Structure formats: C-alpha cells, structure tokens
C-alpha cells in the first residue's frame, strides 16, 4: 500500500499516472540528469559523482521507465578526443536511442553555464534532426535557475535556437498536425521546482 501511494504520488505529480512510456533524459555532462533521476526516485537530494562509463542509468516507476544518457562526454575525454570523440559518441548513442523506441525526450541544459550553450545546442540539433526521433515530444529543461544570473527562459530559447520552434504551453492539440511537441520549461531540480510543470505538459503527448 505504501509503495502504491508512493508510485501514485510521484507519477501523478508528473502527469504520468497510468501511462506507459520510455522517457529518455539527455543533455551534456553536469546538466543534472542523475540528480533529476534520483529526485524522482527518493525525493531527496544526493550529491553525485559525474556518471562514469557506461553512461546510462535507469529508473522504473510503475509502467514508466526513465533512462539517462550523458551526451557531451566528460571534460578529460573531451580534451583528449575533441570533436572526433564527441561525434563518434553521438553516433553510437543515436543507434542506442533508435533501438530503444522512446516515447519522450527530456533534454536538460545547465542554464547557468552559458559558455556551453553552443555545445548543448549542437547536441540538441543532432537529436532533433534524427529521423527516428522525428515525432517524439521534447521537453527542454533549463535547470539550475536557483543560481543567480542563470539564463532566463527567453535567453535559453534564443541560444538554443528554439525561439520559433516551440509548440506552446498548456493544452495544445497537435494530433493531426505532424508537428513535434516541443517546449522549454525552467527548473531547479535541487529546489524541486519547475520540472513538474514540464512533465505535466509533456504527458499530454504520451498515450
Ligand atoms: N544549483 C544547482 N545545482 C544543480 C541542480 N541540479 C543539479 N545540480 C548540480 O549539478 C551537478 C551535476 O549534476 P548531475 O546530476 O551529476 O549531472 P549529470 O547530468 O548527471 O552529469 P554527468 O553524469 O556528469 O553527465 C551536481 O553537482 C548537482 O548537484 C540545480 O537545480 N541547481
Ligand atoms: Mg549523471
């Protein structure tokens, strides 16, 4: 009974109660994927080491499977391999993602780390242009807004090149339109704020 209550609590707060889905968390290293995964799991904060290889983590709650991958590679690896590494990594990752048949993507961006917006945009663009994800809803979470001077939602939209491509908050019926649902929500995973609204928005596009 306790477990059922807990299931209900977490999933209802995300709008995912009684839904069945595979949801992928993506984003550069340090964006907050592991922290979010654990926040959903334990509703408490744990300090994480940067996720090591293989960079994939999973959490199942009811019929919802959350899976996190790190896209950017880690600082040391990046320094050594530079672009070559990033491209290869992305290629391998994309083939995994195709096999997974995901129902939604949550793309996390560190809204405070403006120096990496361009890098994050590159990864996001690669995902958005992949055919296998063509109709998959994308929730973009601008994380860490608890830090002063984190980017605003407008800035983030601008730097990620999304200003004209988001499909609208609230209830927007896109069923007959062939348009991929995509929205930006700002959040602070450590303060447990913002991402619930994002998931609620996303849930309307998950059967
Ligand atoms: N201030 C602040 N820090 C956060 C927030 N979310 C995550 N962090 C911190 O950001 C750092 C990276 O978080 P992780 O969850 O490890 O990030 P990740 O995306 O899993 O990173 P990798 O595993 O390295 O790819 C950690 O020190 C977190 O505590 C947030 O909302 N606000
Ligand atoms: Mg991690």
TrEMBL record:
Lineage top rank: taxon: Eukaryota
SMART domains found in the cross-reference section: ARF, SAR
Gene3D superfamilies: P-loop containing nucleotide triphosphate hydrolases
GO CC, any one term: endoplasmic reticulum
Localization of this protein: Endoplasmic reticulum; Golgi apparatus
Matches recorded under NCBIfam families: small_GTP
Protein name listed in UniProt: Uncharacterized protein
Source organism per UniProt: Rhynchospora tenuis
Taxonomic classification: Eukaryota, Viridiplantae, Streptophyta, Embryophyta, Tracheophyta
